[in-house]
C-alpha cells in the first residue's frame, strides 16, 4: 500500500486524532442535565453512566493497549475510530438510561483501544525530544475542552440539540479513520507474530523492570490530576446548575473548557520553565485551584468558580505533562504501547473510582459536603505527589554523589 501522508504531517494528524477522541468523551457531559430531566435519574445513576465508560476503557487498555507494539499503530487506531463512530450512533438512538449505558460502554472500549496507541504514535512521530510527551498530554485536555464547548453550544442553540453533536463527531471519526489509513508506521513494518499478539491480549498492566521505580513515583501525580478531571466531567454540570444556579448549557461547557483548555496551556508551558520550577508550579496551581473552586461553589459565584477552574486546569495540565514527560523520556520505542497503556490504566482508574464514590456520597451527604470531601482528597494526593518527588530527587542526588565518590576513589 502506498503511503500518501508524509511523516511531517503524521505528527499533527495523530495529535488531532487524540484530541477528537477525548472531545467525544466530553461531549455527553453538558447533556447529562438534559438526560436527567428527561428520564428522571439520580446523581448516582449519572456517575454510573460516567463510570461504565471508564471501566470499559480500562478493559480495552488492559487487553488491546499493547497490541500496537506487535501489529502496528495504524490498524489499532483505525479500528478504534470506527468503533467510536458506532458509539456516536448509539447515543443518537438512545431512548433511556440503558441506551446511554450501552453507548458509553462502546465509547469506552474504543477510547481505551486508541488512547495508549495514539500516545505512542505521537511520540513515535515527534519532531524533537519532549515535543511528543507535551503534545500527548495536552491534546487530550484540548479535546476535552473542545468537546465540552461544542456540545454545550449545540445543545443550547442548535437544532436537534440531543443529537447534532453526535452526528458531527460521527462524521469526524470516520474522516479521521480514512486519514490514518494513509499514515506510515514510524518504526517500520513489523514482523507479525500471532503468538505475541495473543499474549498481549491477555489482560495485563505492567511496566518493564528498569522503569518501575520511576513509573511508580509518578502515580500520585497521575492520580491527583485525573481524579479532578473525573469530578468535573461527572458532577461538574450539577455543580454549575445547583450551586451556581446556571441553566445555560453553553456556560456549563465553558466551565469545563476553562478547566481543560487551561490544562493544555499548562502542559505546553512547562518546557519554557526551568526544570526545578516545573513540578512545584504544577502542584501549587492544582492545589490552589481546587481550594478556590470550592470557595466559588459555596459562594455561588460563577466568576470565582470559572477562574478557579482555569487555575486548577493549569495545574492539571502541568502536573500531567511533568509525569508523562518523565515516563516518555525513559521508555524505549518498542515498549511505548505497553507503558502508555499502563499509564492510562492508572490515570483512568483515578478518573472513575473517586467520581463513582462521589456519586454515592451525594445521595447520602449532599453535593456540598461531597465537594468538600473531594477537595480534601485532592489536596492529600497533591501533597503526596510533591513529597514523593522530593524524596526521589534526594535519592537520585545521593546515588550521584556516591558514584562521584567512587570515581574519585
Automatic annotation (TrEMBL):
It is a multi-pass membrane protein. Its main location: membrane. PROSITE patterns: MFS. GO terms for cellular component: plasma membrane. Residues 1-392 form the Major facilitator superfamily (MFS) profile domain. Coiled coil: none annotated. Residues 1-25 form the signal peptide. Pfam families: MFS_1 (PF07690). The chain crosses the membrane at residues 42-64, 76-94, 100-123, 135-158, 164-183, 214-235, 250-269, 281-298, 339-359. Keywords: Cell membrane, Membrane, Signal, Transmembrane, Transmembrane helix, Transport. GO terms for molecular function: transmembrane transporter activity. InterPro entries: MFS (IPR011701), MFS_dom (IPR020846), MFS_trans_sf (IPR036259), MFS_Transporters (IPR050171). It comes from the Bacteria. It is found in: Cell membrane. This is Major facilitator superfamily (MFS) profile domain-containing protein. It comes from Luteipulveratus mongoliensis.
